[in-house]
UniProtKB/TrEMBL annotation:
This is Helix-turn-helix domain-containing protein. It comes from Halorubrum yunnanense. Residues 173-225 form the HTH bat-type domain. It holds the Pfam family DmsR_N. Keywords: Transcription, Transcription regulation.
Length: 231
């Protein structure tokens, strides 16, 4: 936090050197939206909230209304509006000192985007430097089971060029998906023209071509989610 009238932000005309971070919070068991995501097929998105007195009002979007009703440990959520392919819900609960999002906000860090999937809270943060990210991870140490930085994009400009350096979390891939990617890469499947087609790679893995295609598509989707999440 700035002191003595100084600002941590860049001056007008200067290029900021902050970061955009994707953070996955595992084990945030007191978060109703996270609890609802365990029964929901796909992510729960559009998570936002407001505080009034001691009441915390939260809103989210879900594609499967039945999953919201089935979820345990979730306050009764009122359906606000039906958008066709998804529905907006809202619920109230007492303000919780152990809320991961509140802990982050108390560090003067707005949350750019929040969603939940498979029991994991996924947040996008815009931070002035890596030190602030370390502060957030440290503050969440007693709130969550584990905090994972899934991607990190540094913004820096050199004349007209803007390097975009992104960390990709390979831990999201299963061992089989990693094996499929390594074998396909080694055999030249990704070369143009290809040194090996799908049948050749599948034969090397001793699996059917359709199985190879499924593993490859799943791995590529995860890697693209990691890479494009910060774009």
């Amino acid at each position: 936090m700035a002191t003595g009238g100084e600002s941590t932000g860049s001056r007008a005309g200067e290029v900021p050197d902050g970061v955009r971070a994707g953070v996955a919070i595992h084990g945030a068991g007191n978060c109703p939206v996270v609890a609802a995501s365990t029964a929901h097929d796909g992510p729960i998105t559009g998570v936002n909230w407001t505080h009034a007195g001691d009441t915390h009002t939260e809103e989210f979007r879900a594609r499967d209304p039945d999953a919201v009703d089935r979820a345990e440990d979730v306050p009764a959520a009122a359906s606000v509006v039906d958008l066709g392919d998804e529905r907006v819900y809202r619920y109230d609960r007492p303000r919780d000192e152990g809320c991961a999002c509140r802990v982050i906000e108390e560090l003067d860090c707005p949350i750019a985007d929040a969603r939940a999937e498979d029991g994991v809270l996924l947040l996008t943060l815009h931070l002035p430097d890596l030190e602030r990210l370390r502060d957030i991870v440290s503050a969440l140490d007693g709130i969550a089971d584990r905090v994972e930085v899934r991607y990190l994009v540094h913004g820096a400009a050199d004349d007209d060029a803007v390097p975009d350096r992104t960390l990709v979390d390979r831990g999201r891939l299963t061992d089989r998906q990693c094996e499929v990617l390594r074998t396909a890469y080694r055999l030249g499947y990704f070369e143009r023209p290809r040194d090996a087609n799908a049948s050749a790679v599948a034969a090397a893995l001793d699996i059917a071509p359709s199985t190879f295609a499924e593993h490859l598509a799943a791995a590529q989707r995860k890697l693209l989610e990691e890479t494009l999440a910060g774009a």
